[in-house]
């Protein structure tokens, strides 16, 4: 570690930055020791969870991940870490996306020439899948569980609750081999297209917003929280927070309606 910090000094990094990196790396080494990991083999989800306890703002979390990323590069380890902190109420408020907004987005997506790219965008909008998750899906990932259409590939699990998405995936399954990639488009292309569409619509929605809204749709259908966690990829803390927001809104509507009727 000291060799790495010395290289930063030689590169002109300020003392405050050096001290911050030293603290981050000591915390990183304690994480590796706790879980018996080494530099080349550690669980990134556990790393994010471990660091989010100590680094509670998005800026501090990103700084910590950046320090680790720099250190791994210095050690000759090729690995790109996520710079997005775990989503919870501390970092980000839940932003409901209305049906009218969804229809407006769908209309913009219909102008895309590539059917695969259209489908990828719909997987973001309706299932809350990220571009990297979409890139991991194969044709065999789409199937049925107890008669319900699902996408499942290792840790990626989604109930396919949108009819258009289900229809598109069923068609792909009929036309392609099971081992083929589900979509013939790359995560980077999906990511660039998503940001272009949002800019075109003058909206600042992120993939995380669509993940949250997928969670909300499952909760509104009455699924228990543990199943929503399993089939959304969101943490228990985040799902519980969204559930609390939805219930509060529901109670407010009921009270307002009752009072208006009485008046």
Automatic annotation (TrEMBL):
<dbReference type="InterPro" id="IPR004107">
    <property type="entry name" value="Integrase_SAM-like_N"/>
</dbReference>
<dbReference type="Pfam" id="PF02899">
    <property type="entry name" value="Phage_int_SAM_1"/>
</dbReference>
<dbReference type="InterPro" id="IPR011010">
    <property type="entry name" value="DNA_brk_join_enz"/>
</dbReference>
<dbReference type="InterPro" id="IPR010998">
    <property type="entry name" value="Integrase_recombinase_N"/>
</dbReference>
<dbReference type="InterPro" id="IPR044068">
    <property type="entry name" value="CB"/>
</dbReference>
<dbReference type="InterPro" id="IPR013762">
    <property type="entry name" value="Integrase-like_cat_sf"/>
</dbReference>
<keyword id="KW-0238">DNA-binding</keyword>
<keyword id="KW-0233">DNA recombination</keyword>
<dbReference type="GO" id="GO:0006310">
    <property type="term" value="P:DNA recombination"/>
</dbReference>
<dbReference type="GO" id="GO:0015074">
    <property type="term" value="P:DNA integration"/>
</dbReference>
<keyword id="KW-0229">DNA integration</keyword>
<feature type="domain" description="Core-binding (CB)">
    <location>
        <begin position="1"/>
        <end position="76"/>
    </location>
</feature>
<dbReference type="GO" id="GO:0003677">
    <property type="term" value="F:DNA binding"/>
</dbReference>
<protein>
    <submittedName>
        <fullName>Integrase domain protein SAM domain protein</fullName>
    </submittedName>
</protein>
